[in-house]
Structure formats: C-alpha cells, structure tokens
Amino acid sequence: MTVPTPAPGHPQQPAAAPAPAVPEAHPPFRPQSEVGPGKLDGQLNAKQKTVLGCGGMVALFLIAAVVAAAVSPSEAKSAEAKPAPTVTVTVTATVTVTAPPPVATKAPEPSPSPTQEVAPQTAQVPDMTGKSGDLLVEALKTAGFADGYKATSFHDVSGQGRTVLLLTNWKICEQDPKNKAVPVTEKISVGVVKFGEGCP
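-> structure tokens emitted (200 positions)
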C-alpha cells in the first residue's frame, strides 16, 4: 500500500496510521545456526573441535588404563620371568684301577760316613814254625780267613829261588805275623825250605 506524498506548498497532513502488518503465510526459510545446546554437524567451530579432540584422547587414555589394570602385574611378571625349561644331563663314568701288589723293599743299609772307617774283621794268626805249609793254610781258615792259601805268601829262603808248589814238602822257617790278631785282609809272609834242609 502506497502513501501519497504531499505536494510542495501544501500543509502537511497528519500522517496516517500505518497499516497493520499482515502476517505472511510462510516466513522465508532461514537456516538455523544453532540447534539445541550444540551446533549442527558440519558447523562446529575450531574451539569446539579442539575440545572434542582432547576429550576423545582422554577417553582413549582412560580405556587403555582400565585394560592395563585388568591384567594382574604378578601375572605379567610371571609370564615375562618364566624361565625356559632346563635340561640336565648326567654322565657317570666308572673307572676300575687295579693297583699292583705292594713290593717289599729292603731298606738300604746306611753307608759309613767318610770320617768313620769300618774296622775290618780280625783273626788270630797261630805260630806254625817248623810245620808244613799246608797245616798253616788249614789253621788260617779255621781262625777266620776266607781262603787260607790266598792269605799267605810262600817263598824259598834257602837262597836257591825255587817256586813253592806242593806245601806238604815245605817246612816253615819263618812267619810274619804270628801269635797275633790281624785283619783277615792282611797277607801273611811265610819263608820255607824243603823238609830235610836246615833253616838259614
């Protein structure tokens, strides 16, 4: 509805009362920016996205903590610390050793010290002057000499230088030593002549 504009020079008429607004049958469509306490999907601002992202992370963290708490620490440790099975192999060896029978050993006789001399065995030499040489040999063997013949040294004192062979034919004229105890290793000098001859 159009209100006529007064012509210039005419007194202004009182303005007519405005016509009442006729409600429109259908108001024009306006997209709503907010629905309820939050905004529509796809229309979230950056601050709300940040809040929702942080909240999601916190929720995931809490879920992970609950799952971890559900597993017993002792079970986890026992599962990790369970050692591998140990196999023990025992090898037994039997060794039989037969020792030889003990051998009886005779203890060595102590050897004389260099400063201590062993006294030789002695025997008494009888005086056999005027008798045959074979009787002297027997007497020396009886007295303790091992071999009476080797213990004597017979020689001819007649001056003829004969070799003394058969002692029964020779008479003892001189003997050194006689009637004396001497070592059995000592040689006895015997001077003889044939029976029937005089001693010098």
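The helical segments are 46-70, 73-81, 133-143.
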